[in-house]
Amino acid sequence: MILRRVLHTHRTALFWRFFANYFALILIPVLVASVLTNFFVVRLIEQDAEKLNNTIMQHFSEQTDATFAALETEMVNMLTTSNVKTFLKTSGDTSDIAQRFELIHSLMQQMNKLDSGSLVYKAFLYFANEDLVIDGNTYTGKDEYFREQYPIKDADKLAYLANYRGKQSMVFTGPHTVYEKPPFTSDIVSSHSNIAALLSYPFNSNSPDVYLAVNVDLDKMREQLGIQQKWVTDTMLVDPSGAVLIRNGSSELRNDSFLAMIRSSPEHSLFVKSGQKALSYVKSRFNDSWYYVSVIDLPTLLKPAQTIRAITIAFLALFIALGSLVSYYLSRKLYNPIRDIKAGLESQRLGDMSVPDGGNEFDVIKRFSGLLISKNKELSQMVSGMYPIVQEHFIAKILCGEYRDSLSIEYYAKEIDFPYKPKTTATVLCIEIQYYAPYTDQLSETSKSFILAELKENIRKLSPASIWVCQTSSDQLACVLHHDETVRCDPKETADAVKILLQQPYYKASIGIGKTVHTVADLHMSYSHALSMLKYKSLHAGAEICGEQSVWNERASGDSFLSVGEVNRIFNRYKAGDYESLLRSVFDLLDAGMRGNADAYQMKNLCSDVLNAWIRAVESERNDFDITLYSELFASVGRCVTWEEMRQTFRDIHGVLFRTMEPSDRKRQLTEIVAYIQNHYNEELSIEQFAAQMNMSVGHFSRTFKEEVGEKYVEYIAKYRMQKAKQFLLETDMKIDDIAGQVGYWGRNSFIRNFRRYEGVTPAKFRTMHQT
To answer: HTH araC/xylS-type domain spans which residues (predicted)?
Structure first.
């Protein structure tokens, strides 16, 4: 009985040993694979799902912001291109009633264009200093307009009208209810909710004269807010307090949940509201105080990840069960041989390490020791390969002044096994590499890195025992020359030898010679001095040496900025149209600088001053400042390496700034524009488009059109449309509405007003008179 109990105990122990081995050899990899699957694969799926949701939300927010931005652009264009300014000047002037009514009808036509937007319910002009409101169909007093034309619910009306005060720069009002009813009746047909976008004019005035109101239909806006994804249950437009402005769905958003999400979660991330729901938000780029919030159904979004997680758990459970069965079988069959091996192992010691209890410890130790040896070899090779890089980085930090005291330099040098003498006489050479224009874009960053690596190796070969070489920036190398008693190292001679290595066809190299110092801790002063010498580099091609002697002997003094008289001459030549002399004067400056051997810093300052004068002269007439273009022009001057590159750069800049158009070309383009108007008279013809086509401002184009054609641009289009309208009236049976659309008018009323203006009668009466 006792023997049976002992054997059973030993088999149990063996079972656990086999299971431990199985656990170490099989289950640990399976467990690691399961953990990796859950933490990486599943996480990747979750991240992909989150990224997909972010992409959809981003696209949705950009699309919605684009809708608001397009609406803002239309509103700004309407206020700047319409006759609002002219109409305001006639306010209170009763001398020319006809002109005032003509301007009102023109503004009504502009309101019709805004009314045609997909989200716009109604657009109108609200005049702050007059009892007047103008929309696309009528003009009337304020009380009558908001009572008959745009009736607002009484509870919302006071808050809505309070928005028409002070400066309003694309401000959205709160939601308000609008009734649909025939004018001058009390029969309400339907009602709907709107929000209004307000823009005051003049734009920068705190007491504006007029407000442009564009009312957006909230029902249509809710349709646009919908995201057609099954995991998105609701989308909302929310203000900073958490109040929902627009909602597509039935989910509720608590203020504390929204504020907690904004404080704790970055944009685009998922904020888990509960076990089943999550929130995601994107900040509006159109209005900084708006947030687009989506309510996410987490089980639907993460269903693939949950499925893989369940399969992984089932797979792990299967391996545990299989391991238990195998361990039980082996414990029954192999107990005696394992007992003998175990007894033999317990009598052995591996150095200072004893064999641990349980399992085949020898194999475990053998495998572990083999792995340890292999890892040690890899680590040794890695450290050996990193020493040169770390030491070069250490030298760069000393030169840049990060390590200035001897104690810190000694400490870090020991850490990286860097041999050096604290007291040594040394000089720093700073080499700056500037690639010529043809090679700047042709050479990749990898190619440039190989060029610098090869250059460093060649410099070290000049005197391996006395030169340290390191890269201090992407286009600069530093060489530390040690004045050893046994190895002679003269800075000027070494600079001459390095100069020969730098004679390359694809870059210009400048060598700055620093002053000599006597300790490693003072190397940063020599390096700073070498950098200051590089400021005196020239614009000559090839390698050059910049030292104290060359600076004083070779550089001629000169002005780095234009005088007031020279700037005035540039303006006078520009106004006289003598563009060629502007370019010749720059070439003369460059020739004078070349003869005087002026340095690059001086010449680039002078050329930048010339470019600044050119731009000011051009802007005095064009008034179309383009900061991106002008910044690139200044940058192109700064990138010049040689005199010829500077000449070519100013040729290119001259071609950009002083484009001229011959009179024959102008007449040909106007002929083409007139032909286009005649062929497309029924379309919207933008004067801005034609002005940009001829590279003119709108005012310049309008004056040129009248000079060449004999009529104003707007008058020419209107008369040509009236001519076509008369043909349709006399030669066809088309309805008045169809003829209006055929000749480019948005509505019947605006067509009739313009026809009566030019013909003196309405279109219907004109047709009747001539048919009779």
So the answer is: 671-769
Q: Tell me if 149 sits within 8 A of 138, measured CB to CB.
A: yes
Average pLDDT over residues 116-122: 71
In the block, tokens 């504020």 appear at: 259
The one-letter amino acid code at 313 reads: I
Mean pLDDT over all residues of the chain? 78
Cβ neighbours of 407 (radius 10 Å):
9
Q: pLDDT at position 350, please? A: 44
* pLDDT confidence tier of residue 537, bands split at 50, 70 and 90: confident
Mean predicted confidence (pLDDT) in 94-101: 75
Instruction: Answer whether CATH 3.40.50.970 is correct for domain 226-301.
Output: no
Q: Are strands 270-272 and 190-201 parallel, antiparallel or unpaired?
A: unpaired
Residues of the chain with CATH 3.30.450.30: 226-301
pLDDT at position 352, please?
Answer: 44
Q: Give the bridge partners for 690, in sequence order.
A: none
How far apart CA 265 and CA 244 sit, in angstroms, is 19
Distances (CA, A) of 712 to 227, 401, 716, 719: 49, 70, 6, 11
CA–CA distance, 516 with 526 (Å, rounded to integer): 6
Instruction: Name residue, tokens 């990899």.
Output: 29
Q: What is the dihedral angle through the alpha carbons of 675, 680, 683, 687, rounded to the nearest 10 degrees?
A: -10
Topology (CATH) of 663-771:
Arc Repressor Mutant, subunit A (1.10.10)
Residues with Cβ within 8 Å of 201's Cβ and at least 6 positions away in sequence, in order, are 79, 84, 208, 209, 210, 211, 212
Burial class (CB in 10 A: 0-12, 13-18, 19+), 479: buried
Least trusted range by pLDDT, from 30-39, 324-333, 621-630: 324-333
Could you tell me which residues are beta bridge partners of residue 134?
125, 139
CATH number of 82-223: 3.30.450
Q: Which helix (H) or strand (E) holds 430?
A: strand 423-435
State the Cα–Cα distance between residues 311 and 45, nearest whole angstrom.
15
Mean pLDDT of 424-435: 88
Using the predicted structure, report yes or no on whether residue 91 has a pLDDT greater than 50: yes
Q: What angle do helix axes 643-657 and 579-595 make, rounded to 10 degrees?
A: 170
36-57 pLDDT per residue, tens? 766 666 667 666 666 777 777 7
The CATH code that applies to domain 387-554 is 3.30.70.270
Integer angstrom CA distances of residue 312 from 112, 325, 715: 63, 20, 77
End-to-end CA distance of the chain: 135
Averaged pLDDT, 628-639:
86
Q: Give the pLDDT confidence score for residue 430 in this predicted structure.
A: 92
In tens, the pLDDT along 646-668 reads: 888 888 888 777 765 455 667 78
CA gap 123, 112 in Å, rounded: 8
∠ CA 440-445-446, nearest 5°, is: 130
